[in-house]
Amino acid sequence: MDLEMLRNFIAIVQAGNLTGASERIHIAQPTLSRQIRQLESYYDAKLVLTERGSRQLVLTDAGRLLLEKAQYICSLDDSAREEIRSAERGAAGTLRLSVANSRARPLVVRMLKAFGKSYPDINFMIFESSFIEQRQQLLSGIGELGLLSTPPDRDSNFEELFRTDEFFVAVFHKNSIWLHEPERKGIELSGLREAPISVSSGYYQEFKRCCASQGFVPHIKSISTTRNTALHWAEANVAVTVMPMSEDEDMDKDLVVKKILDADIEIYKSVVKVKGRPLSPLALKFVEFYNENGNAKRLCDIGALYEESQRERHT
User: Higher-confidence residue: 249 or 270?
Assistant: First the structure.
C-alpha cells in the first residue's frame, strides 16, 4: 500500500462511485476496483458497499474510519512537501484554517491581512463551516488551526490556544423605526420587545432564554443559518439583528450597534488545534503573530507547542 492508493480512495469517496473518480483522476475503473480490494485485504475489513440497484458506494464504519485517517495522512504528506519547499524559500507556504461561519471577514481584516504583509510568500486556504464540519476538517488535517464560535470544551479532541470574549449586540439600520436613543451605546432586552428580530440559528435558543428571563417572548422575524445572513435583515432595514460580536469588530456605517446590557450569556470564539498533533512551522508563526496582535486571552504555552513540533520532527 502507498499514499497514492489512499489518495485514490479519497477521490472515490468524494466522487461517490468509481465512474466519477475514474474521470476525475484519470485512472481506469478496474484499477480503482483492484485498489479497493487491496485496501480491504490490507486492513482485513470491508470498506465500501454498493447499494442494490445503485452504482453509488456506501462506506462501512471501517471505511469511514479509513477515510478520516487517509485524509490526515495525505494532509501530512502535503504539509511535509510544503514545509520542505518553504524551508528552501524562507517563510512561505499555505496556512490552512477552518473558520466558523461568518468569522472569516474579521479574521481577514484584523489578522490575515497584516500577517500576509509580514510574510508575503504565504498564502491561505480558508474553509468556512459549521462546527460539525469544522470538527471533521480539523481531525482529518484539512484545516490545521480552527477558529470556533462553539465552545471547544464540548469536544475533548481539541486544545484551546486563544479565547476572545464576545457579547450579544442588537444591530439596527441607522434609519430603523425601532432605534431609540441612537447615541446610547447599550440597550436592555426590554427595548427589543416590540421589534422584529433576525438571529442566527446557533444563538436562537440562547436569545429566547434571555428574553424569557425578562418576562417576554421575542418577535422572531428570521432565523438564519449564518450570522452574515442574519445581518442582511438589519442592512435591509427590515428587522433588528441580534448576534455575538467582539470588541475589535467593525460594522458598516449605515448600521448602529448596541451592546445588550442584561443578556445573561457567556459567548466567546476560540482558536484551537487537535490535541497531541504538532503544528507546522508556518502554523507556529501564525500562533506567535496571533499572540502579539490578536487581542485575545492566551491559553497555551507557545514554548511547549514548539517543543511538541520539534519532537515530531526528530521521531
Answer: 270
| Boundaries of domain holding 285 | 79-164+268-313
CATH code of the domain in which 25 resides: 1.10.10.10
Q: In angstroms, what CA-CA distances link 51 with 10, 17, 247?
A: 19, 11, 52
Residue 272 grid coordinates:
484551537
Nearest-angstrom CA–CA distance, 2 and 39: 10
pLDDT digits (tens, 9 = 90+) for 17-65: 888 888 888 899 889 889 999 999 999 999 988 765 556 788 899 999 9
Residues 124 and 183 in one domain: no
Is 220 found in the same domain as 174? Answer: yes
Same domain, 201 and 238: yes
Contact 305, 279 (CB under 8 A): yes
Specify whether the CB–CB gap between 56 and 50 falls below 8 A.
yes
Residue partners of 76: CB distance under 8 A and separation at least 6: 141
Residues 131 and 275 grouped into a single domain: yes
- In angstroms, the CA 71 to CA 142 distance is 7
| The total number of residues written for the chain in this structure | 315
d(CA 212, CA 312): 51
Do the beta carbons of residue 76 and residue 86 sit within 8 Å?
no
Given a contact cutoff of 8 angstroms between Cβ atoms, the answer to whether 287 and 299 are in contact is no
User: Are 264 and 213 in contact, with CB atoms under 8 Å apart?
Assistant: yes
